[in-house]
Amino acid sequence: MASSLSLKTRFTLLIIAVVLGAIVLLGALVYNLTSTYITESIGRSISERAVNMVERLDQNMSARVQEVELLTSLYEANDSLNSNQLREQLEQIQQQHTVSSWIGLLDSNGRVQVATGSILEGANISHRPVFEYGSQSLWVGDVHEALLLSDLLPNPSGEPIKFVDVAAPLRNSDGTLRGVLAMHLSWEWAEHVMQSMFQTTSSDAFPIEYFVVAANNTVLMGPENTIGADLQSLTTDTLPAGLEGASWRIQTWQDGSFLTGFAKTEGAGNYPGLGWKVVARVPTVNAFEPLHILQNRIAIFGLGLTVLFAGIGWFFTARFSAPLLRLSAAADKIKSLQDEITIPEEHASPELMGLSQSLNSLIGRLKSQREEIDDLEDIVHTDPLTGLHNRTFLNEYLGHALAESKRNQGCLALMYIDLDEFKDVNDNMGHHAGDVLLQKLAKRLKHIVREEDIIARVGGDEFVMAIKANAEEVETLLARIADRVIKKLSKSVNVGEGQEAHVGVSVGAAWWPSHGSSIDEVARRADKALYQAKESGKGQYIMYTNDNE
Question: Where residue 158 falls among pLDDT bands split at 50, 70, 90?
Fold first, then answer.
């Protein structure tokens, strides 16, 4: 049977076999490499969205807790105001922060002495958790429906009013209880946070849904038909039992398959957190659409090339067998996609010349696709506002850097840098001024960091510097770099329109292997040193020691 085939047919079959095999192998290689990378990138992106939501919730609650602490300290130091003056002050605070639905001062027996709008004044609420727990220490209560205030506060929507409570004790100079300052926060602030996330993601290529879930797995916020439900009842797969940091997985829900990101609130400042979780999900059909497009394009491109080369091969004759074999051998090397691979241009006939040019075009297209993938990786690893590396790049870099430090018996240090009073710049000058400030401070940090080290932006106004050194110089080097950071970043910055912004800088550091056996442990201790620097007066540098525990 094979001997009866013509030479033209044999060449045509040979070309089809070689080209199709090369395309299938190369396509499979490209698809496998890119699909793994794209899947991880999209998964991390979704989990980072959940982390962003968590950070906004924690920061908002932390700000409210700070307000209560500040008011408590003010009223403990000044008890000369009468009821009318106190009420006027509380109402001014309520007007400045619309999330506060009710603020009241209770006496030591739980009776409301004075409150905004005179609501509940004279009522004894000693049986309520806001007094029971608030009279002992700073207390933050989880989301609950209003009981006493449901009929007293305006409610245009007609839906049940939900509150988050914050309370703190007022004490006399001898430590005895004078009363309790209580604040009811309307749950609407969390809805505003979620709406801001929707606006942030409205331009994305795929829709993102968010769920805010209580510690007992009850959905506090999400699609309307899920509020109040147990999150586990909405899925057919078992949800992660424990959750530390951020994670993602492909989760089967009652309404379909979703790429799902998870993050847990951890509190901020003196706000300890309430164990809320944020779940962000995207339908897998939307999330992985780039993979489907890539797969289809590879198949169509391969089919087109196969048909093209089969048509060209039909016109080959015996005298072209040698050039054809050379081209076939070169085409077989395409699957390695080495940079130096080039197809020899044959001039024996127009058909052979066209074939060689087509193969060169194929290599050019494949190299172009590789360059596009490299560009995508740069985008994923770069903070879009400052141009610095982001948390994703930092995590990958630290794994390689730690292995290198182990081989070289060196040290790997982490320096956490946080801007003091950055929120005041955003509040007083606007977020655009805050963005300009971050961009200019990022440029200053680039000039401070050494060539062998990196700087990454890991939060709104938080940066991490990874520094390589040897054990003899590491602490001296860190102190010198921290001093430069504090001096450079503390200088005023022109943020446009004649405005000068000024922030302080707090720095904490720790290094491997002295402060931890793993880089995650070193990171936690550097972060702990940073918070000690902020709590100790800000604008200073602290190196972690065992005394920090």
Answer: very low
